[in-house]
Specification:
The structure is a homodimer of 181-residue chains. By secondary structure, the first copy, chain A, is mostly helical. Helix content of chain A is 57%, strand content 11%. Chain A folds into two domains: 80 residues, Winged helix-like DNA-binding domain superfamily/Winged helix DNA-binding domain (Arc Repressor Mutant, subunit A, Orthogonal Bundle), CATH 1.10.10; 73 residues. The longest helix of chain A is centred in the last third of the chain and has 28 residues. Strand 3 of chain A pairs antiparallel with strand 3 of chain B. Chains A, B: InterPro entries: Tscrpt_reg_PadR_N, WH-like_DNA-bd_sf, WH_DNA-bd_sf.
DNA sequence: TATCACTATATCGGACCGATATATATCGAT
DNA sequence: ATCGATATATATCGGTCCGATATAGTGATA
């Protein structure tokens, strides 16, 4: 699912400018997807050329035109086709966890500080999301929101309960046999 | 943290070819990061030019040279500096959840099938990861692995316990006027 | 003997992001 | 009254990264 398709999808909720679509990405999809202007504006231009959206330019005195985009029947049809495709696998990237892969190159104090900060970050994101949850109207959005909160909570608990595994100094012995499975 | 830096990091564990680095990404970092050959090979070339890795070409009869890369002292220093930077925020993308944002455009049966498949996917990935967990030697890797398993488990449980929210038919009322804002 | 999976390299086109540029408007702080 | 921050609103450039594709030998399995 590319940004172009997602823009089309957001326009099924009503007409919008590129700027408003960017806000929609942040407000209702932040935990699931994000997109920058450098993807949104070209997408909108392409969708217009393809006839999947129409563009009404509101000229404003001494300001650049406000371009309001609406989805066309052809666009609606196209989007409907797209969301019936099997979704691609989730993608997750974490610089934090990548750094921890190399925790043997860091001082113990640094590892602890890293984990403390990450927990704080997760907590803050979870709180922001929780607050936003109440504002959402649709069931879909509530569901999405709840998913995000759950994941942050799980991450926080895991870090708290298992941080000792990489904070403790490595046992100086011949490596013990690990019980496989 | 870009792929180039991560390649440098993986070389702190020992010398490797580009192909082996790709395998390392899949075997020990899959749930945290991934990289394709189209990123790895150029990264290795650039690191060589920069003097952060050295390259020993093992010429093989009737096959392209096997290029074995090793990290240099300068590379080690550079990487150490890099992992002391504050890590960027996690990034998560889910076509599955994005699709669910538009579940009002799908038939209830399709939504259920989508969720069933996703749960199956998560279960499979979790099992693969669990199995791999036993094989890992270092505490860091055990920790990473456990993190992944925990997250998959949390996702599965959330989907199972909350799917009714979007599977249930929406209450039939006058449709409120919506906008993307 | 054919097919598959693995080792091993590399590039092209395209998707996407971060930084930057350009204006104006509004609102609170100094 | 002015200053800085934030918001509205557009758009592009350089660069990173991925998916698809190309090439080619080896060994195992069917």
């Amino acid at each position: 699912m590319d940004i172009r398709t997602l823009c089309l999808g957001l326009l099924t909720f009503g007409e919008a400018t590129g700027y408003e679509i960017k806000k929609a990405f942040q407000d209702r999809m932040s935990m699931v997807y994000d997109a920058s202007f450098s993807s949104i504006y070209p997408s909108l231009n392409r969708l217009t050329k393809e006839g999947l959206v129409s563009c009404r330019a509101e000229s404003q005195s001494r300001r650049p035109d406000r371009k309001v985009y609406s989805i066309t029947p052809a666009g609606r049809e196209e989007f409907l086709k797209e969301i019936h495709n099997a979704p691609a696998a989730d993608k997750f990237r974490s610089d934090f966890l990548a750094t921890l892969m190399f925790s043997h190159l860091l001082q113990p104090g640094n590892v602890s500080r890293l984990i403390d900060n990450q927990i704080m970050d997760y907590r803050q994101k979870k709180d922001e999301l929780s607050q936003g949850c109440g504002m959402k109207q649709s069931q879909s959005e509530q569901f999405l929101c709840g998913f995000g909160v759950t994941m942050y909570q799980a991450a926080i608990e895991y870090l708290e309960q298992n941080r000792h595994l990489i904070e403790a100094p490595a046992p100086v012995r011949a490596p013990a046999k690990q019980s496989v499975k």
